Structures are given as structure tokens and as C-alpha cells.
Amino acid sequence: MCGDPLRGSSRGEMDLGKMRIIADGIYMIGGPDISHPDDATSFIVDCKDELVMIDAGAGASARVLQKNVEDAGLDPKAITTLILTHCHIDHIGSAPYFRTQFGCKIVMHELDADAVEEGESLKTAASCYGTFFPPTPVDRRLTGDHEILTCGEQEIHCIHTPGHTPGSLSIYVDRGGKRILFGQDIHGPFLDVFGSDIRRWRKSMELLLTLEADILCEGHFGIFQPKENVTRYIRRYLKDY
After folding, report:
1. Helices marked H in 6-61 — which ranges?
2. pLDDT of 188-197, one tens digit each?
3. 3-state class of 234 per DSSP?
4. Which of 86, 89, 149, 198 has CB 3.0 to 4.6 Å from 156, enough for a Cys bridge?
5. Which fold has domain 14-240?
6. Secondary structure of the chain: what % helix, strand, coil (to 5)?
């Protein structure tokens, strides 16, 4: 993927080995500079007695992701929920490993779930990566425009933001007076084989702007903050498309 002139700086992050602390109890455990070049970013939200994982890399780095969770002082066995923001291999690859090893429930939007359950090579983009994704059960299919998962006392907001794929999700949590938005693959790409829809994507981006997030965790280009940089990043792509 080509470089981005607005790539997030490391300001506001604390490096701890390969894992990064994004906010209180929120960790980046995977990504191209952390776990494997093919991986999209993946995150852990610590909800005290439970952990929520967001995305799972491309598959080759499952044990690296696990180690990064452990390096954060957390127990991977506490991962109860794995949210997949969409069905592409660089986000779902290690989902079977975490589901099998730790018994976490896979959650994603229903419009992308069939591709995961069928191991469909084109819609998951596994064929683009020269790899194979095994058919994997999705334990909970989200159907609404805005659904809230509860983990301990933490609300995890799942927003349906179609465009890149029909079932793309954006996630946000409010913690420590800040809103952290996991807006994976805001930048696209947009291909017919993915079921992309630029018109719906634009509406999705306008919706994300209304959230006024303080921190944006993007799927490939890093962490953006403060709020003004989050807005600038999203508007840059709205201008491009």
C-alpha cells in the first residue's frame, strides 16, 4: 500500500516492546510495523475482567499477537469477544486461532459474515494475498446501524459504515474523557469484487465526522490525534473521492 502524507505520528503513544498503548487500557497489538507486514492494525480494549479484541491480522502472526497481549500484562484467555470490522484477510486472518485457542466469540456485521463462514477467497481477499482462509463460524451477526456491546462496565459502540465492503464496521469507545474511534480502512480501496459503494462510503464518512472522535485508530496508516487531525484525515479522503 502506498504511503500516506497524513500518516499518524507516534506522539501520544507509549512504546512497550512491540505493543503500543493508545489510551488507558487500549493497546495496539498488531499492524505492519508491530506484528507482520501483511497485517492491518489490531487492538485490545481492557474491560478489567474481560478483553475485547478488534481485528486479527492476516494470519501468519497469530502467536505474535498473542505475545503482544501478554506483553501488555494481559491474559489472552480473557479475550471474550473478537470484533471483525470487515471480511478482508488482513483483518480476519488470525480469527480462527483466537477462537479455537481462547474460546472468544467472533462478532461482525451480517453483510460480511457469509464470506468469513464460507472462507470465500475473493471476498475475503485471501486470493490477493496468495493465502487461504478456512471457513470460520461467526458467533454473532450484527444487523443494526448502531449496536452496543457491553463488556464489564464498558460500552463498545459498533457503527455500520458500509462503503469499502457492504458490512464494514467502525467501532468507538469513550474512555478517560476521550472518544477513541477504530475506523479501519477509511481510505478504501473500492473495488467491485469487494462490493464497494462510494456513495454509501461518503455517507459513512459524514457519519463518522459527527462522532467528533479525539483519537482515530486507522487500519493501515496509524494513530491520528487530536480531534482536528482526525477530522482532517477523514475529510482528506472525502475530497479525494
Report:
1. none
2. 999 999 999 9
3. helix
4. 149
5. Metallo-beta-lactamase; Chain A (3.60.15)
6. 25, 30, 45
